[in-house]
Specification:
Layout (H helix, E strand, L loop, with lengths): L24 E4 L8 E7 L10 E6 L16 E5 L5 E5 L4 E9 L4 E9 L3 E9 L1 E2 L1 E6 L10 E5 L5 E3 L5 E7 L2 E9 L4 E2 L4 E5 L4 E3 L8 E7 L12 E2 L2 E7 L16 E3 L8 E7 L4 E7 L2 E2 L6 E7 L10 H4 L6 E5 L23 E3 L7 E3 L4 E6 L4 E3 L9 E9 L6 E6 L3 E6 L4 E7 L5 E4 L14 E8 L4 E5 L2 E5 L14 E3 L8 E10 L5 H11 L6 E4 L1
Amino acid sequence: MKRYGIVFPLFLSVLLFGCTSGDRLAGSKGGSETTNGITAAIHLGTGVPASGSSVRLRSADYVSAIGMLEKATVDSTDITTDAEGKFFIRNIVPGSYSIEVYDTAAGGALLFTCTVGPYDTVDLGTDSLCPYAALTGHIDTTGTTGGQLYIQVRGLERLATVNSDGSFMLNDLPGGNLDFRIVEGDAATSAGELVNVHVVAGDTITVPVVEGTRTSGYIYLNTLIPDANQSQPVSGFPVLIRFDSSSFDFTQTRPDGADIRFSDARGIPLPFEIEQWDEELQTGAIWVRTDTIGNSTSNQHIIMSWGEADATGQSDGAAVFDTSLGYAGVWHLNEDASAGTDAFRDRTVNGYHGTAAGDMTSGNTVSGIIGKALQFNGTTDHVTAGALNVSEQYTLSCWVNAADLDTVHRIIWKEYSYTLWHDAIAGGIRLEHFTDSLVWRGIYQDNYRIHCITEDSWYYLAGTYDGDKIRLYINGELIDSTQSINYDAYSTNQPLMLGGRKGEYFQGCMDEVRIEKTARSSDWIRLCYRNQMGGGGTVQFKR
């Protein structure tokens, strides 16, 4: 039996009405016979009773078939609402049901689901018809027997014909969480697994075109986790998605992940970069650039698909870390230091690739907070990465795990321009830039406050300058800010150095260094920390 490649988005914005035999009961009756029912009152969107609307009750596992529908039992029935927009269906076989109410003239529909026992009368309350939802999509027909393909909707009276090119459309659906399956021939035999779609009343949902025999999964983005505190949506955010043997079967993809693709809920492709995909170690780390991540949401999602044996890899760091979005330099620091000149790749199109200096070898590549990281010896090791200047605005960020805090460590350093470092004398993290007035301004010059970190622990450090103030963040939280500076960072031809300068080299591990020519918001930086720290709950992969 062929398993057709078909991808549907999940959980957009509309919830189903639900009840059980113990919920919202209008009454119970005894006796030896089945005496039960389901009732509700339906209005149009204007509040007028939806009299004469059609009501279809179907068993929750019902699927329609070709030809005249034969109703052999009372678990499937059709009635209409009365003058007050009410309906009451009596003497129902106990079980779970879908109840669709629709009015063609009004152009609206409504879907209920409930479970009813032998003596329950379930009152679904009062609700209003909503505009029809529509769903379009495409399935792969390669390798079929040539029989006509159909799309069924479980629990509804729907049977849509799939066109010869694999496209289909259902344009009169009630909004809600629906199960679909593919059938072939006489529509009596399932030819594809049931898949779930959440369609939105009044909207047309377009599912992605799937090439070949792809499999799909869903990446949920949750900003309702404890301490997320995201106050505004963020756009163009690069989401990190981690995979391991507990969440993903690596044998289903190409060894290098070349068949992996991502799209948004509408099926529009999203740029992504594979930082790590290791079938042998069963680990993966992929960056996906999203459109917008809303605040206070737990059901936003993107779609991941894979399984095309002949697919060409589309990993593209430059598209994820697009310079038009403010990125100036991005280094994952997961490469081998012994690779020579430009071993550490800048993932932007700017090409500020880093070259190892000092005594760095292959052994300096170690496990990091995200895949691999780079270890520095504190005496000679550093990376030079071109003369990257910042000016009116900037954001500096990285992950660090310091092995020794008893000496001065320059983490990010550009001579007479900008720096993020640990001051062993003052005892904490400092962030500052050199100005046209030929003085250093920042934290802690402007306030003499110091902010400590400890050895042998990973920290996410970030600092911003918005043209007015410098702000310092540690582990996603705003720690300090300066007075108004009003002097931009000085530009020089000196090289950017990761890991320090002579006499002030960093000892420990560094990962995911970014320099951006924009001042990221507190929401952005907090989301970076929560997303990248691992185990933060912001991202969840599901099949």
